[in-house]
Amino acid sequence: MTSKPQKMPKVAKVKDKSPAELQITAEQLLREAKERELEIVPPPPRQKISDPEELQEYRLKKRKAFEDNIRKNRGNISNWIKYAKWEEEQQEIRRSRSVYERALDVDHRNITLWLKYAEMEMRNRQVNHARNVWDRAVTILPRANQFWYKFTYMEEMLKNIAGGRQIFERWMEWEPDEQAWLTYIKFELRYKELDRARTIYERFVYVHPEPKNWIKYAHFEENHGYIQSARRVYERAIQFYGDDHFDENLFIAFAKFEEGQKEHDRARAIYRYALDHMPKEKCLTLYNEYTRHEKKYGDKSSIDDVISSKRKFQYEEAVKVNPHDYDTWFDYVRMLEADGNVDLIRETYERAIACVPPIKEKRHWRRYIYLWIYYAVFEELSTKDMERARQVYQMCIRLIPHKIFTFAEIWLLYAKFEIRQKDLAAARKALGQALGMCPKHKLFRGYIDLEIKLREFDRCRKLYEKWAEFDPENCKMWIQFSTLEAMLNDDQRARGIYELAIAQPRLDMPEYLWKSYIDFEVEQEEWDNVRNLYERLLERTHHVKVWISYAKCEHSMPVEDNVVHARAVFQKANRVLRSCQEKEQRLMLLEAWKEFEEEFGDDASAGKVKQLMPRKVTRRRQVTTEDGSQARWEEYIDYIFPDDEAAKPSLLLLAKAKEWVKKQQEQSQEVPEVREEKDGYEESAVVDPNLDRDDSDVDVGSSSSESSSESEEEPQEKGIKGK
User: Fold this and answer.
1) Could you give the CA distance from residue 446 to residue 477 in angstroms, rounded to a whole number?
2) C-alpha to C-alpha distance for 613 and 608, rounded to whole angstroms
3) 672 pLDDT exceeds 60?
4) Helices in 601-697 by DSSP H: which ranges?
5) N or C: which terminal CB in the chain sees fewer CB atoms within 10 Å?
6) What is the rounded CA–CA span in Å between residue 504 and residue 501?
7) pLDDT value of residue 172
8) d(Cα 438, Cα 435) in Å, to the nearest integer?
9) Region Disordered: what ranges (predicted)?
């Protein structure tokens, strides 16, 4: 049968939509509604039943209403409970029981229904019926803990201890949660049944194997004075969990138990055992408790052990995060070496050297290689295990990729180790292998030093020859080779090595080589060779320091007229450096010449040098940027030498200047002061032409009138330039 569609209710139409004269706000409506709620409503009249017939009629009416409600909604348990409760109020226990049974047929898994049913039986002192209800409830719903709690509580209130124990045993067969076991234990303790409680604890810790339950078991034994039993419980708990499932709370409780019994050594042993066997990330609280215990009961050494243990934990965490942090490995191993545990130190070294740098670049291996060195030194000096130290060196050498890079230090340390073991052949073999695989300057130097200490000079010569073949540009090598020959009093051989060295087309530091060669000849007092070397050197370079050194060397020679020879060198240098672009070098030469003349010459020679000194002027120039554009202006210092100014005019101008000077001399008998104005600067310049000549051409002791007549021309030429 099809249902008819529901019709929408008609909306009342408002004919007059104009606002009312009296406006009512929403606030007034709410206030009026609230006031009506506060009005006293009289209760319904109380019905008085005067005879059994009226009572039966009332009951029939109520039962019919309850039955109608149940019939309308059979699954609503509250209707059943209200019905049963009303029957109980009418003292109709059988009828109430019947209602509950009918309700259980509808929903036998409703916990509230079972509870109300059993409580009704208990209120009316129907003990057997209540037991029957509880028994049926725990059989149907064994996981509902409320039934078991109520059932055992009822039996205990009835002083039926044996019955309550049987109910607990039935409950424990289902292995309930922890609180149920603890309730059973408290039940037994209330009646002083310690053995039964201990038996329940034994079953409890295996059904719920958690550390806190073992700790509760141990506290139970301790609280009742069974100290040895409590200790055995802790020991069994540690054995039960094994090395893989340790819990720090269990160890802390065990240690505090021993601490409470004044067994501080036992507590310390427990802490150390736990710290050694548990993962470090799970021992934070344990470390703090251990530190507290040692500060309270330990001595200085034990406190140091705690601190070292904490540092060990920190190092372990650091290397776990970054295993290639070799500085942390160094600190870690150094701390362990202070403790002296050889096996642990070796294990840590093995873990550290296993962290090989992932990239074969020398900068990543520089810190790593020292782990091997420290490991070998530890085995040699601390454990005296020479064979193991040799194996460490050999493994390290095999690990390094010598074709890409090498470390000369490890080869030299290995060779020195073999020498300490009095195995010279092995040391030479190792160094020879190093030179064959990866020759380096440090390897040659170390091998040669070793042979020099052994006084094997022929081997040293051969090694120097190999070194010269490997790197002929190395000036230090040539100098050391020549020094060795000079030390052996083989001057000709040393001189030949120097000659071979300076004949090389390329050298890294030729100035040091030449200086060493010259110093060698000076020591041999071969002054002709010294002059020859300076002349050969000046053919290659005109550096001012070479000239100054040459002049000083000439002055230091034990020959006559050494001052004259030195002055000749200075004059030659001045002529050569006149064409040098770097005016600072010529200035340095003149300053050195001036100091020389002031110390070893006379006033006339010193005055001549002073006349050669330049004047310093400040000029401006425009800075050119990288792209070629002109940028800002900058000031710089320039030096103007007198002879440079005199050489600038051309020959024609020079001739005209001479004619003009003659005319001026005819007009006036004195030489006028000639001034120059150039680039905004006005300076006077008087030049002595004799300064360009050697001392052999200039008479230093002649009168000033002669020198002035000879040098008249030059300043007059300069004056014409200013014009």
Assistant:
1) 12
2) 9
3) no
4) 603-612, 642-647, 651-667
5) N
6) 6
7) 92
8) 5
9) 664-723
Residue 478, Cβ neighbours under 10 Å: how many? 25
658: Cα separation from own chain's centroid: 82
Structure confidence at residue 101 (pLDDT): 93
237-285 confidence digits (pLDDT tens): 988 888 777 888 888 888 888 888 888 888 888 888 887 777 777 777 8
Higher pLDDT, 237 or 502: 237
Residue with tokens 């019919």: 64
Burial status of residue 223 (CB atoms within 10 A of its CB: 0-12, 13-18, 19 or more): exposed
504: left (phi over 0), alpha (psi -120 to 50) or beta: beta
Closest CA to 213 of 171, 181, 248, 258: 181
DSSP E strand stretches across 339-383: none
Q: Whole-angstrom Cα distance, residue 119 to residue 321?
A: 63
Phi, psi dihedral angles at 682 (to 5 degrees): -120, 115
- CA separation for the pair 563, 700 (Å, rounded): 14
Phi, psi of 638 (to 5 degrees): -125, 150
Which band of pLDDT confidence, cut at 50, 70 and 90, is reported for residue 692? Answer: very low
Per DSSP, the residues of 90-110 read TT-HHHHHHHHHHHHHH-TT-
Name the more confident of 306 and 670: 306
Residue 550, Cβ neighbours under 10 Å: how many?
A: 24
Neighbours of 199 (CB within 10 A): 13
* Contact status, residue 495 vs residue 523, Cβ threshold 8 Å: no
CA 674, 677, 679 angle in degrees (round to 5)? 155
Q: How far is CA 105 from CA 131, 138, 161, in A?
A: 19, 17, 33
Q: pLDDT tens digit string along 516-572?
A: 777 777 777 778 777 777 777 777 777 777 777 777 777 777 766 777 777 777 777
DSSP for 291-329, written as a single string: HHHHHHH--HHHHHHHHHHHHHHHHHHHHHH-TT-HHHH
Mean pLDDT of 129-145: 93
The Cα–Cα gap between 515 and 482 comes to 13
By the 8 A CB rule, do 236 and 213 touch? Answer: no
DSSP 142-193: TT-HHHHHHHHHHHHHTT-HHHHHHHHHHHHTT---HHHHHHHHHHHHHTT-
* Helix or strand holding residue 69 (H, E): helix 52-72
Can you say whether residue 538 is alpha, beta or left, with left for phi > 0 and alpha for psi between -120 and 50 degrees?
alpha
Q: Which amino acid is at 68?
A: D
Contact 460, 448 (CB under 8 A): yes
pTM: 0.51
pLDDT at position 85 is 93
pLDDT of 708 higher than 60: no
* Burial of 10 per CB tally in 10 Å (0-12, 13-18, 19+): exposed
Spatial contact of 310 and 272, defined as CB atoms under 8 Å apart: no
CA distance 322 to 79: 70
Q: pLDDT for 558-604, tens place per residue?
A: 766 777 777 777 777 777 777 776 777 777 877 777 777 777 777 77
The Cα-based distances of 647 to 433, 579, 662 in angstroms read 66, 12, 20
Task: State the distance between the two ends of the chain, measured CA to CA, in whole angstroms.
Answer: 139
Task: Provide the percentage of residues in the chain whose pLDDT is more than 90.
Answer: 19
Displacement of CA 555 from its chain's centroid (Å):
61
